[in-house]
Amino acid sequence: MTKSCIRVYADAQQIIQCKQDIEKVENTINQIARTLNLAGNEVRLKILFLLEKESKMCPCDLSDILGMTVPAISQHLRKLKDAGLVETNKVGQTIFYSISESNNLILNPIFGLLTPEKESAL
């Protein structure tokens, strides 16, 4: 059984206004969708959480904490860096990763859910 939309009159002004509203926020929607898509991966969300909590970390530390190989962690970090979610700072031969400030508005509400009090509510 196929359901279809049956309407007598379309609100043309509403449709025009909504199209204009979407156009105005198109770039922001794309950025949020890209961020949530990457953060939707369990390992990458754990990495982002740890970077938020610790400010900066190297791939070796993340590898030890998450029980994964350094190359596997590096692949996730590369995806996060390519999308602009994390940035790097090289100190000697060690590369430290941190969350890019430009993504705090998107990520902070997610991190707010990752507290022991909120964890039991989900």
Automatic annotation (TrEMBL):
InterPro entries the record matches: ArsR-like_HTH, HTH_ArsR_DNA-bd_dom, HTH_MetalResp_TranReg, WH-like_DNA-bd_sf, WH_DNA-bd_sf
SUPFAM superfamilies, per database record: Winged helix' DNA-binding domain
Keyword Isomerase: no
Positions of the HTH arsR-type domain: 24-121
CDD domains found in the cross-reference section: HTH_ARSR
Regions annotated as coiled coil: 15-42
Record key words, sorted: Coiled coil, DNA-binding, Transcription, Transcription regulation
One Pfam family linked to the record: HTH_5
Keyword DNA-binding in annotation: yes
Recorded superkingdom: Bacteria
GO MF annotation, one: DNA binding
Listed name of the protein: ArsR family transcriptional regulator
